């Protein structure tokens, strides 16, 4: 029988146990992370849990994982959190507000941070963890899109190791281990990100006019939070991932390709100058990606079964349809433009997706609003956090106004 438990076991609470802060603990990535962590009790444990506003779900996670700290982003929810923890007889200390989450991410009670807050709201805590030199398991791709240069620079300066928690980027991260990283360029010709194509693959633009939020979040292969599910349906998710890959692996957008692969078993590929193409394969379950990040460089149990290619049979590939799904083209353009353009792309998309999920705008308005924002706002140089946050705020404002002016809003 293969040895599937290569980790040394320690007593729970041993001093050398890896202490992990899970930010966005109640979400899809957060709960998958906690599932993997719980499989390795003693060797790693969740010491900090943070969430946006769901106090009951956060308390339930505290009962299961017994962290030292729990934080809720909404300051108005401090008392319910504190009282709920006390009523559950937990020693977990309650905190509230974004600043408290930043302080916990940077503080002494964790050495690893799973950054799994959704949207630009996660930038501040992600940056705090990077500046504090933590091992950063980065799921919050919007932080990289909004402030990729700044975040990677600060992480490098503080010695923070960034491990991507996105199936495609984890695949590339793994495939890149087979080259000599000390040589500039290291023989990489291009990166190929795979995309499932989302729930509307194969539809024309006209067919997308009347799709509903419920149809958009029903992803055929992955179970994810509502925002990233809509991003997958518009292909903006792949666009954000192109920008994410650029920052993580220092490859220009022109050498990052996208290939639609409906089975979602090949998670991405790296092509080398010698003609070798390396791919990473696995079932579409983020616990594999999280186990890579949590255990790295060790391989640890994730609870995910191996891949039975015979059972799956066919692997198919096709080109993305940039006419039906213009968000991917807009993301490449924003990356090319640089400066504040990716921040504008991201902010307009967040506002538009939120309005779509609330039933206030149609599906096709999402790319239209993003395109409008990119042409309305100048892509100024943006190498400071203040400049990026100002572009983000301004874009949210003009996109909100544009939505209010839409006939059916
Ligand atoms: P989700 O909606 O399921 O969960 C989001 C989490 O963030 C929740 O715990 C919520 O309480 C928390 N949150 C929201 N606003 C907050 C705030 N202001 N402060 C603190 N916490 C806040 O989303 P998800 O699918 O888990 O995605 C999380 C991130 O991971 C996103 O950036 C997404 O793009 C990325 N990601 C997700 C997947 C996936 O399979 N779900 C895959 C790759 C990348
Ligand atoms: Mg992905």
TrEMBL record:
Record's protein name: 1-deoxy-D-xylulose 5-phosphate reductoisomerase
Segments forming domain DXP reductoisomerase C-terminal: 281-397
InterPro entries named among the record's database cross-references: DXP_reductoisomerase, DXP_reductoisomerase_C, DXP_reductoisomerase_N, DXPR_C, DXPR_C_sf, NAD(P)-bd_dom_sf
Domain 1-deoxy-D-xylulose 5-phosphate reductoisomerase N-terminal: 20-148
Metal-binding listed as a keyword: yes
Catalytic activity from the UniProt record: 2-C-methyl-D-erythritol 4-phosphate + NADP(+) = 1-deoxy-D-xylulose 5-phosphate + NADPH + H(+)
Binding site for 1-deoxy-D-xylulose 5-phosphate: 141, 167-168, 196, 219, 232, 237-238, 241
Residues reported in the UniProt entry to bind NADPH: 26-29, 52, 54, 140, 142, 225
Domain 1-deoxy-D-xylulose 5-phosphate reductoisomerase C-terminal: from-to ranges: 162-249
């Amino acid at each position: 029988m293969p040895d599937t438990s290569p980790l040394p076991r320690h007593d729970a609470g041993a001093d050398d146990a890896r202490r992990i802060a899970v930010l966005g603990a109640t979400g899809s990535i957060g709960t998958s992370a906690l599932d993997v962590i719980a499989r390795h009790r003693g060797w790693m444990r969740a010491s900090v849990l943070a969430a946006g506003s769901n106090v009951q779900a956060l308390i339930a996670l505290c009962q299961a994982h017994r962290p030292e700290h729990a934080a809720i982003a909404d300051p108005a929810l401090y008392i319910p959190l504190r009282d709920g923890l006390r009523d559950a007889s937990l020693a977990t200390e309650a905190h509230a507000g974004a600043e408290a989450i930043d302080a916990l991410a940077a503080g002494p009670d964790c050495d690893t941070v799973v950054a799994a807050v959704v949207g630009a709201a996660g930038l501040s805590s992600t940056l705090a963890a990077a500046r504090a030199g933590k091992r950063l398991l980065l799921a919050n791709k919007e932080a990289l899109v909004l402030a990729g240069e700044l975040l990677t620079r600060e992480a490098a300066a503080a010695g923070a190791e960034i491990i991507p928690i996105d199936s495609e980027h984890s695949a590339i991260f793994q495939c890149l281990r087979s080259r000599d990283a000390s040589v500039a360029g290291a023989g990489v010709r291009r990166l190929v990100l795979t995309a499932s194509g989302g729930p509307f693959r194969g539809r024309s633009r006209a067919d997308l006019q009347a799709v509903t939020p419920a149809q958009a979040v029903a992803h055929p292969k992955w179970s994810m939070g509502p925002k990233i599910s809509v991003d997958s349906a518009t292909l903006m998710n792949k666009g954000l991932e192109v920008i994410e890959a650029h920052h993580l692996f220092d490859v220009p957008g022109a050498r990052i390709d996208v290939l639609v692969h409906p089975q979602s078993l090949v998670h991405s590929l790296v092509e080398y100058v010698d003609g070798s193409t390396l791919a990473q394969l696995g079932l579409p379950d983020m616990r594999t990606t999280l186990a890579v990040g949590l255990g790295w460089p060790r391989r640890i149990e994730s609870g995910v079964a191996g891949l039975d290619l015979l059972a799956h049979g066919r692997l198919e590939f096709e080109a993305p349809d940039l006419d039906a799904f213009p968000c991917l083209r807009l993301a490449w353009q924003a990356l090319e433009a640089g400066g504040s353009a990716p921040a504008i792309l991201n902010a307009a998309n967040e506002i538009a997706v939120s309005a779509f999920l609330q039933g206030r705008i149609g599906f096709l308005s999402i790319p239209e609003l993003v395109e409008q924002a990119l042409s309305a706002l100048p892509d100024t140089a943006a190498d400071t956090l203040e400049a990026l946050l100002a572009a983000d705020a301004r874009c949210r404002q003009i996109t909100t106004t544009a939505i209010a002016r839409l006939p059916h809003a």
